[in-house]
What we know:
A: alpha/beta; 36% helix; B: 9% strand
Amino acid sequence: xxxxxxxxxxxxxxxxxxxxxxxxxxxxxxxxxxxxxxxxxxxxxxxxxxxxxxxxxxxxxxxxxxxxxxxxxxxxxxxxxxxxxxxxxxxxxxxxxxxxxxxxxxxxxxxxxxxxxxxxxxxxxxxxxxxxxxxxxxxxxxxxxxxxxxxxxxxxxxxxxxxxxxxxxxxxxxxxxxxxxxxxxxxxxxxxxxxxxxxxxxxxxxxxxxxxxxxxxxxxxxxxxxxxxxxxxxxxxxxxxxxxxxxxxxxxxxx
Amino acid sequence: xxxxxxxxxxxxxxxxxxxxxxxxxxxxxxxxxxxxxxxxxxxxxxxxxxxxxxxxxxxxxxxxxxxxxxxxxxxxxxxxxxxxxxxxxxxxxxxxxxxxxxxxxxxxxxxxxxxxxxxxxxxxxxxxxxxxxxxxxxxxxxxxxxxxxxxxxxxxxxxxxxxxxxxxxxxxxxxxxxxxxxxxxxxxxxxxxxxxxxxxxxxxxxxxxxxxxxxxxxxxxxxxxxxxxxxxxxxxxxxxxxxxxxxxxxxxxxxxxxxxxxxxxxxxxxxxxxxxxxxxxxxxxxxxxxxxxxxxxxxxxxxxxxxxxxxxxxxxxxxxxxxxxxxxxxxxxxxxxxxxxxxxxxxxxxxxxxxxxxxxxxxxxxxxxxxxxxx
Lengths: 255, 375
């Protein structure tokens, strides 16, 4: 791991509130360059909300969110676009555009940002499709013709289209069969190490956490309960954390 | 972050070529590098040296080009290849995947596509008609079953539909009818006034509003309001598998979703039509009062003379028929939604367009029918 401890994501005193409901009340979180951080937490603790706030889909009530050392709220539209080019997001169900084929979905960011020869774009797309483990015949299909797992892979290919440095994954293995999920874990790990990606993921999957993550962050009680290596976090003294990491479904962890 | 532009230098003579690459081989610079490779690296000589060791930063797009160059150079007699750790790592990743050209969306001739679409549209219209007949049959059989078991009829759901589509639609229908009444009376008074027959504007107003405009306006507003709502509501329930869930719980979507909307609209639209008729006449009356100083008493007297025994009922009879058209098409299109948001939009539009179209067609058929039987 490239542990130069440079913070790619930096969240300070984040407060998020919807109407009267306070979701986060002072969350602090860092993601270092080149690491894979997994966010866990019980349902309703605002894992996805945190992710959406970091990628700029939700406006926090107060607090600071920095990506690549730039505070997201203070950027002009153009600067924020430059930052957006440097991260990719995989939404829970892929969020592919239904009116475009898989290939066109992947090509979209390339066409939007760079003036590249058509043939090169096609080559790059073909490569991205192969890289996420999809058959080349999938390229011409529409998202509605794909299974959930395939949509996820296609979504990942689109997220990787611009070769981002930072990747956000929202429940990457949810809805996949164990073999598919394991393959997806392996894929993410391999891409991460070879492309020097930083990965921020929200997940429930203990296997994913175990195989992939460098650090685990636990959300609860509107705050970040703890963050650290899996061993550190699973030793943390909190009822939910104990149940989560030592419950009946945690056999694979073998801690 | 290092922002050195990606570069590629090519030194070559007849027997040896030396390609040196450096800088950032990332997606920002890949377009120029690609062009350079395509124009300068065509036929490589027998000895080729590839030196990629000066590359500082590389992503998969850059690595893709490196791999292309590598593939081309490998076939030469003598071949030397220098890399660094970064390039090696990413090439290892890349080499694990063997991309094959993906099929893209087939390109079709525009004219050919339009003609084919016309043919498909015709077949589809025939099929749609058949489907409507089946769907109407389903609704009828559901309704018939209530005759045997009236307790199963969902009165609550039906009442809710009457409120949503009848009661809540009153303000807009009434306002439009009132304004159209004014327009018709104004135009009538103007044109008939030229002949000195402006008193007959009352006849014109009564006949156009009661026979045609009252029901047509209400039906078109309801098609836009309720037809689209039906399609969108049922369609989004299809997308979220709520309709499937109903089947598995043993509820019949026909009974829960379609029949209450159908019955509700058949009750609501005649009421809306009645109100539209009243307010249309009222609008016209008020205009005539202020424009021609036609007193309300005179107006009502003339109105009662002008309206024949059937004038009012000719309009009202159409209301339940149009209501059935709107409800059947709205519900049918809603149930045809599959999967995506795009499909939901398409079927909602269809629901409105088809129901307005059929309303006009049936209105014409009614006119012919009433003409033949002479009322």
